Amino acid sequence: MIKESNFKNYLFQQFELQEEHWQKLQALVKYQRFQKGEFLLTAGSICQHSFFVEKGLLRFYSISVNGKEHILQFAPENWVVSDRSSVFFGEPSSFHIDAVEDTTVVMLDERFLKTLAEVNVKFASNNELLLQNHIRHLHQRLHSLLGENAEERYLNFLKLYPDVMQRVPQWMIASYLGITPESLSRVRKKLSKN
Predict the structure, then answer these.
(1) Which DSSP category does 138 fall into?
(2) Under a CB-based contact definition with an 8 Å cutoff, are residues 1 and 31 in contact?
(3) Residue 147 per-residue DSSP state
(4) Largest CA distance in the chain
(5) Strand (E) or helix (H) holding 120
(6) What is the extent of the structural domain holding 21?
(7) Other beta carbons within 10 Å of 183
(8) Number of structural domains in the chain
């Protein structure tokens, strides 16, 4: 068990959770450790959880019919990742989630989220805000992939994930940006000259 939980701090900050609420929730909090390369979700399975990253790094991605990976999201510490459509609708996921490095997560199931809503009224309104922010992030991601050049996408990546650059191989960054590793090298070289 982790002594001082990033997740507990996250709940206290995001939802102004009180210690009495935490006492009711603590028994439902399940930590799980995943080794580098281990899957939390595979395409074709139904996603049962959202994953709060306590320590480590996850990636959320799909694989095309020709075997090419397309990374949609990285999830470093204090981020939540899930296939919410699969969770909500109970449909098989089209995505994979795996550990980029050894990672400890909090497994958030619907029971935990319902209990959180019962003990903390602020959760409902803040959860709506978090959902809207998630939708905004998806729209920005689509706009970036469809409307920005590689240099702009790379600069946005650095803003969104300032510490991920040193934690993942270049091909993963290129996959996230929708470019080849060679194109990423050219972008980085060009920016280093400026």
Answers:
(1) H
(2) yes
(3) H
(4) 55
(5) none
(6) 6-119
(7) 15
(8) 1
For residue 149, is it within any domain?
A: no
**pTM of the shown model:** 0.91
Q: Is residue 135 part of a domain?
A: no
| Residue 1 maps to a domain | no
pLDDT at 117: 87
Q: How far is CA 74 from the centre of its chain?
A: 5
Query: How much is the pLDDT for 2?
Result: 46
Give, in order, the Cα–Cα distances in Å from 138 to each of 6, 12, 135, 142. Answer: 25, 26, 5, 6
Do residues 11 and 17 make contact, with C-beta atoms less than 8 angstroms apart? yes
- Supply the CATH number for residue 13's domain: 2.60.120.10
**What pLDDT was estimated at residue 193?**
87
**In whole angstroms, what is the distance from residue 118 CA to residue 115 CA?**
5
Sign of CA dihedral 90, 60, 7, 12: negative
Residues in the chain: 194
Res 137: pLDDT: 86
Evaluate whether residue 60 is within a structural domain. yes
Q: What is the pLDDT of residues 28-42, one digit of tens each?
A: 999 999 999 999 999
End-to-end CA distance of the chain: 47
- pLDDT computed for residue 4 by the predictor: 54
Low-confidence ranges of the chain (pLDDT < 70): 1-4
Give strand ranges (E) for the chain.
30-34, 39-41, 50-55, 58-63, 69-75, 80-81, 96-99, 103-108
3-class DSSP state for residue 2? coil
